[in-house]
Amino acid sequence: MHPSCLAQDIYCARWLNSCLKNEDVILEAHSDEVWFLQFSHNGKYLASSSKDQSAIIWEVKEDGQVSLNHKLIGHQKPVLTVSWSPDDQQLLTCGQEEVIRLWDVVSGECLHVYEKSGAGLISCGWFADGKGIFSGVTDRSICLWDLDGKELESWKGQKTLRISDMAITDDGKRIISICRETTILLLDREAKFERWIEEDEVVTSFTLSKDNKFLLVNLINQEIHLWSIESDPKLVSKYKGHKRARFVIRSCFGGFEQAFIASGSEDSQVYIWHRCSGELLKALPGHSGAVNSVSWNPANLHMLASASDDRTIRIWGLGHLNIKHRDQSNGVVHHCNGRS
């Protein structure tokens, strides 16, 4: 059995031993569509961003309840994304073709504003050491800054679209970005070597796995592709079932050893797949608008969050996930709600 598939069996076994009925929590502090959300690395916070030009830092309590900690005001346009510093002490928020703001998580104070003359910023993220940030810019460039706002490096695109989604591997060596409609760039900063993921359909978003070995790519044709990117990119698996017609829908890895794939959908549901087999395990109803983004808590594997056009965030507990899969070694079906 493949190690990642074995990890899924271990994960479900742990669920079988610890299943508790959790009612989902609905968070309603945003006044417009919620576009993005992300749990902190330690799982103690959740950050969300909205069309209402604000971001919110939520605190995740030990009992699973979630409360508003800080509402971050200052952007003049909708806030596209958020990004946690490696130590979870600071948060980046990226305005739509505007500026990036750096916030102190404890106080809620804005510490710095990053901007580029004559251009807007459309993505943001951190270096693994927490000493610098990066951004995609509307002038088709990729910029790197230190925390004081000094520009360290910049790459100018050629015949590319505007740089939207971006990521940097934990070793700081590879920059990953959407650079053309159907293409993702894998840039080795040290070797100055480029590799490419070429899709047949338009790429709308992507997510880098925790181990930096895989990329989850959302496509305009309502498919999600899993790519191995350790050496030459290789398509590993495909996930189908969710709906995507007009909006950017984001997906995530989740569970023990990131054994599952979760995604938002325009039909107001959250979809969950078995990562190895590609089997659709669950569609979670509850939202009344398109689900734009999902995030799985890295510290509490029984907690999944979703952000929607209905202006709410839902926190899904173990009782609602109720995932099951078949153990390929003995044919037994395991139910992750405590039954087998």
From TrEMBL:
WD repeats: 27-68, 72-113, 284-318
PANTHER family recorded: WD REPEAT PROTEIN 26-RELATED (PTHR22838), WD REPEAT-CONTAINING PROTEIN 26 HOMOLOG (PTHR22838:SF6)
Keyword vocabulary terms for this entry: Repeat, WD repeat
Record-linked PROSITE patterns: WD_REPEATS_1, WD_REPEATS_2, WD_REPEATS_REGION
Domain of life: Eukaryota
Organism: Xanthoceras sorbifolium
UniProt entry tagged with the keyword Lyase: no
Name this protein carries in UniProt: Uncharacterized protein
Lineage: Eukaryota, Viridiplantae, Streptophyta, Embryophyta, Tracheophyta
SUPFAM superfamilies, A to Z: WD40 repeat-like (SSF50978)
